[in-house]
Each structure stands twice: as structure tokens, then as C-alpha cells.
Amino acid sequence: MINEEDLNKCIENLAQLSTTSTRSDRQLLLEIGYILKQELDNVKAWNSSHTDEQRRHGQIDVKKLLEDNTQLFKENQTLLAAVANMKDVIEHQLPNINEELVEIGNKFDLLNKQLENF
Fold it and tell me: Which of 42, 49, 55, 57 is nearest to 3 (CA)?
């Protein structure tokens, strides 16, 4: 993006050229100046919003940011270890649960047979 200073300089140079140019050249210079003025307004608006954003949030404390990231990394490692442990427990208990479900299914089958015979 072109900075404000350069855009202002371009507009001033176009203004000087327009005083020594023909009518058709002045028309072209005026169109270029208008486009540059629009870009200058956009740059000013962007700079203003960026400055306002910095004022609201203040300066970023890099040291604090690194500390926070380190803490988050440690917490993430702890959570990953807990998830791995839970996965191991579930995988270890899964055969037992499966056996119990088969046994429950067999008991229901037996109950259904008894009810049919009754």
C-alpha cells in the first residue's frame, strides 16, 4: 500500500503539472488526481482504524505472549497424555464389556425362550 506522504506528493505534483498543461492534459491529470485522492482517503481510513485498534489493545507484551504459549503447550501435553491414558483404559476394558454384553444377550435369549414355553 502506498503511504499517505507519497500519495500527497503525487497529488501536489499533478496539481503543478495541470497549471502548465493543455486542456485535455489537465482533464487526464484531474482524473488521475481524483483516483489518487480516493486512495489517499482509503489509506487515511486504514491508518486511523489501525491506530485506534492499537490504542484499544495497547502494545503486545511478547514476553507474556511467550509465557502464555508455553503454558498452553504444557496444558495441551497434559491433556494429550490424559486422552492417551483414557484410550488405553477403554481399550483394556472393551473386551470385558463385550463379554458382559454377550452374556446379557444370552440371558435375554434364555428369558425369551422361557416366555415362549410358558
Answer: 42
